[in-house]
Amino acid sequence: MLRIRNLEVAYGRRLALRRVSLHVDQGEIVSLIGANGAGKTTLLRTVAGLVRPAGGQVLFRGRDTAGLATERVVALGCSLVPEGRQVFATMPVLENLLLGATVQYRRGRRAEVEADLARAYRLFPRLEQRAGQLAGTLSGGEQQMLAMARALMARPALVMLDEPSMGLAPLVVKDLFAAIRTVRAEGATVLLVEQNARAALRLADRGYVLETGRVVLEGSARALLDNRDVQRAYLGGEPSAAREGERP
Amino acid sequence: MSDASAQAAVCWQPEIERMDREALEQLQLERLEATLTRVYRTLPFYRQRLDAAGVDPDAVRSVEDLRRVPFTTKEDLRASYPYGLFAVPLRDVVRLHASSGTTGLATVVGYTRNDLRHWGSAVARVLVAGGVTREDVVQVAFHYGLFTGGFGLHQGAELVGASVIPMSSGHSRQQLRIMQDYRTTALACTPSYAMHLADELLEAGVPRGALSLRLGLFGGEPWSEGLRRQLEEKLQISATDNYGLSEVLGPGVAGECGEKRGLHLAEDHLLAELVDPVSGAPARPGAVGELVLTTLTKEAFPLLRYRTGDLTTLTTERCACGRTLARMGRVLGRTDDLLIVKGVKVYPSQIEAVLVALEGADPHYQIVLTRRASMDEATVLVEVSEAIFFDEMRRQSGLRETIARRLAEELGVHVAVRLVERKSLDRGDGKAARVVDRRGA
């Protein structure tokens, strides 16, 4: 689905990504974890066509998309749910959703938009209840749901989520992650950036750990959860010496 | 093998073992880059090596770029004894093993929990490729201890779900007793020890029908096609070769499938190169070279471009079994086994190949090196049956001459041959001592 080789991104003279290679296979949930400034958001924004890379290759469904405009990338089937939601606050929920369907209209798939809307409401029933409400009046969790639902309206093959759990209550996060699982079950592939490494790795099949613009570790989510460096740096410490043996 | 049967070849991890080569290369690149980044950060040894060679780890952007990274040798490992090359704190290590110290100080290797898991699945692949299923009763006759053989095969067989008998090596009569009573179906040990057990079986007068044995999973030392045929015939089994070395992983590095045409490498865990043992340059395609391995997933004991000392070939040609993983050939010998006899390069494996092809000679042999007037000389000791050894002087000298002639033809140099009584050569604890060096004496 997505194959990145030796991606380099510079902001001025500062290298945000130095040499990143990673891939996401069809139907996978892959999680990127790392500290602030490690380059996670930059990576998603580069794949989405918002940032032009200084070097390397981004192959999306076999096509080199490095440097393509965002609309083109979305049209090819790759949507980003940006950090901080970024919904149109002064527009009703329904209109926000329909904006996400622009690509579908352009593809001449007007007839499918109704079904996609029904699907979005099934995923997040709360959005249907608030369809006429201005997006700016929604709670943080509802705005995140809206942002995700809007991205799904483009029928993406790959959904990239940037920090979806940021600032949300644990129960809301649980619902949101359940929705990500459903989205994958319905056929989409997911690339997830999260501060909440434990939750992300529990959801994901595989993961990559980014530090200062480089991948330092990759592996199955289970292997990363069991890695002591990951435990120390991102999971709030390693299990106590006495309890180590109890873990399954 | 037909396409239909190729489809049927069972894999332990089909998603890896039959991975599209392009996807595999992507995976290897990702893991190589992450390994380089980590190793450079955590291990002063590699940082100094790379800096001295002027190699910026960030500039390694392909598998080919890895060639600029200096080799790591057995001497480097010895110099960092015991823990100098561990990339994680000792408290993250859950298992320690050591390489056999037959040729010097042992090398200590550590495994994290993830390392053990990867190792177990790599061994399981080799076992399943060799035909093992959960229905099998696997007798592990590799030594259990610091050596990786016993525990390595054990955890792989357990993962497959077979019934594992942790016999360890030695106590041959007891091995045979248990093999009968427990109805062992698969034997895992060194080929020389399997040969020894086969002889013991004959000597004890145990009819082959008393055994349930059907598979032999042999590794730990170089052996030959001739020895395979003998073992398969004597034990009535299908015998496969597997390869590993404790510095890199232990058993599980590579193993033969039912095709028996090369050993599939665990390329998701290791990057394999073949180099000219003298110049270190990439070996010519199809040529014999020294296997060089870089670990891709090791947490505790990563290695960059480790010179295994093992001579073999390498091919990425598609195997009829459906696995896409590259295959190495049988190990033909070790770079440090290389004997220079009167200026001619001789590998012990060549001598074994001659012996197994000859009627009357057992493939139990030893090469004794001596030095006379600064000239190396080799004498090959060959075990022969009692009948030949005691009774028939004429047959004995005839056989000796035949062996000497064939060896001279094969090696291109004359070596002395002496026939010795059966079981007079040391078989060690499984690993046969093929070369006795008396040049210093």
Describe the structure.
- The complex is a heterodimer of chains A (248) and B (441).
- By secondary structure, chain A is an alpha/beta fold.
- Chain A has one domain (2-238): P-loop containing nucleotide triphosphate hydrolases (Rossmann fold).
- Chain A contains 11 helices and 10 strands.
- Chain A has helices at 40-47, 70-76, 93-100, 102-106, 110-123, 125-129, 140-152, 170-185, 197-203, 221-226, 228-234, and strands at residues 2-11, 14-24, 29-34, 55-60, 63-64, 78-81, 158-162, 189-193, 206-211, 214-220.
- Chain A has a 6-stranded mixed beta sheet, with helices on both faces. In chain A, strands 2-1-4-5 form a 4-stranded antiparallel beta sheet, covered by helices on one side.
- Chain B has 441 residues and is α/β, with parallel strands linked by helices.
- Chain B has 2 domains: 1-334, 3-Layer(aba) Sandwich (Rossmann fold), CATH 3.40.50; 339-437, GMP Synthetase, Chain A, domain 3.
- Chain B is built from 13 helices and 21 strands.
- Chain B has helices at 3-8, 14-17, 21-42, 44-52, 74-79, 113-129, 148-160, 172-181, 191-203, 225-235, 348-356, 386-391, 393-411; strands spanning 95-98, 108-111, 137-140, 163-165, 186-189, 215-219, 238-245, 250-256, 263-265, 270-275, 289-295, 306-312, 314-315, 327-328, 333-334, 339-341, 344-346, 361-372, 375-384, 416-421, 435-437.
- In chain B, helix 6 crosses helix 7, helix 8 packs across helix 9 (191-203) and helix 9 (191-203) runs parallel beside helix 10.
- Chain B is globular, with a radius of gyration of 22 Å.
- Chains A and B meet through strand 1, strand 2 and strand 10 of A and helix 3 and helix 6 of B.
The secondary-structure class of chain A comes to alpha/beta
CATH superfamily of the largest domain in chain B: ANL, N-terminal domain
Shape type of chain A: globular
From the coordinates shown, what is the CATH architecture of the largest domain in chain B?
3-Layer(aba) Sandwich
Radius of gyration over C-alpha positions of chain B, nearest whole angstrom:
22 Å
**Fraction of residues in helix of chain A:** 25-40%
Identify the biggest protein-protein contact and residues per side. Answer: A-B, 22 and 23 residues
Main sheet overview of chain A: 6 strands, mixed
- What is the distance, rounded to the nearest whole angstrom, between the alpha carbons of the first and last residues of chain B? 54 Å
Assembly classification: heterodimer
Low-confidence stretches of chain A: none
Low-confidence stretches of chain B: 1-6
Helix content of chain B: 25-40%
The global form of chain B is: globular
CATH superfamily of chain A: P-loop containing nucleotide triphosphate hydrolases
CATH class of the largest domain in chain B: Alpha Beta
Q: Supply the helix-strand structural class of chain B.
A: alpha/beta
The total count of strands of chain B amounts to 21
Number of strands of chain A: 10
Taking all residues together, what is the mean pLDDT of chain A? Answer: 92
